[in-house]
Design a protein that fits this description.
With 287 residues, the chain is of the alpha/beta class. It has helices at residues 16-27, 65-70, 72-92, 124-143, 165-175, 192-203, 223-234, 259-265, 273-286, and strands spanning 7-11, 32-35, 53-58, 96-102, 147-152, 154-156, 177-180, 186-187, 189-191, 210-215, 221-222, 239-242. The protein has a domain at 7-156 and 190-217 and 255-270: 3-Layer(aba) Sandwich (Rossmann fold). The chain contains 9 helices and 12 strands. It is globular, with a radius of gyration of 19 Å. The two termini are 33 Å apart.
């Protein structure tokens, strides 16, 4: 880091959002150190001596729900301690703290969903994000750590891995058969570059309070619409099959109210859904 403490500490820097963010910080010549693979944030002794930064962007978290249900203790321990230790680093270094949270509103009571909507963890991952938010509120209240929480709805973009919707669609496209579950749920998708923009905007936020902001597109599309858009823009015929359960979807729709972020962070998404899909398809062609 820098001797004058003007750097940024990025946890989870090797992840989907973290790698995009660290590239942007490097391009803008913002001194940054990334804590990615090989660093266990749940082990305080591995990180307790880090110094020389005035901001922490906490992206690190386990997201694999399969392992969360198989080993909830390990999953929640990891995510809780990672957030706690990152906050402690911010406190010790008199740094501001930016938490990458998630959709934490449960089944919506109304749409679009603003930041005062009641929160509810529907799975261990959401529950771990709510724990992290509670820790943030406590560190701001008790120790004066300035905190910005970014509630990122559904980030998408090149480089995303695992069982998220668009990686599954793109893998199926390459194999000639797209096989998914329920086609009905609607989600608010936000492109990775817009998420990075939100992180940069949060770095410039000068308030010393605790603030939460929704980061989304402000609209939603269904799983089926997403598949149709990918197939149409790709221009190749692909077999598509769904397994529609008889019961209604657990969360039928999510739409972020992003007016607060626009008003206070001066942030708004710039990449439209079709452009986002085109960029993902182009990245897949280059692989």
């Amino acid at each position: 880091m820098t001797k004058d403490g003007n750097g940024v500490l990025v946890t989870g820097s090797s992840g989907f959002i973290g790698s995009a963010l660290t590239r942007r910080l490097a391009a803008e010549r913002v001194p940054a150190v990334g804590l990615g693979l090989g660093i266990d944030l749940a082990e305080w002794d591995q990180i307790k001596n880090l110094t020389g930064f005035n901001a922490v962007i906490h992206l690190a978290a386990r997201t694999d729900l399969a392992s969360a249900y198989q080993d909830p203790r390990g999953f929640l321990r990891n995510n809780f301690l990672a957030a706690l230790h990152a906050l402690e680093l911010a406190r010790l270094n008199h740094a501001r703290f930016i938490l990458a949270s998630s959709y934490v509103y449960g089944i919506p009571q109304y749409l679009p969903i603003d930041e005062v909507h009641p929160t509810s963890g529907l799975n261990p991952y959401m529950a771990s994000k709510l724990m992290a938010e509670d820790l943030c509120a406590g560190y701001q209240r008790d120790f004066g750590v300035p905190v910005v929480v970014l509630r990122i709805f559904n980030a998408i973009g090149p480089g995303q891995k695992g069982d998220f919707l668009f990686p599954k669609i793109l893998r199926g496209l390459a194999e000639g058969r797209i096989s998914l579950g329920d086609p009905r749920p609607r989600r608010d998708f936000v492109y990775i570059d817009d998420v990075v923009d939100a992180c940069i905007a949060a770095l410039a936020w000068s308030d010393s309070a605790f603030e939460a902001f929704n980061i989304g597109s402000g609209s939603s599309i269904s799983v089926e619409q997403a598949v149709d858009m990918v197939v149409r823009l790709n221009g190749r015929v692909s077999a598509v099959e769904y397994e529609t359960p008889s019961k209604p979807p657990e969360t039928p729709d999510t739409v972020a109210d992003i007016r607060k972020a626009a008003r206070l962070l001066r942030w708004s998404p710039r990449v439209a859904m079709e452009d986002a899909i085109r960029r993902m398809l182009e990245a897949q062609e280059r692989e």
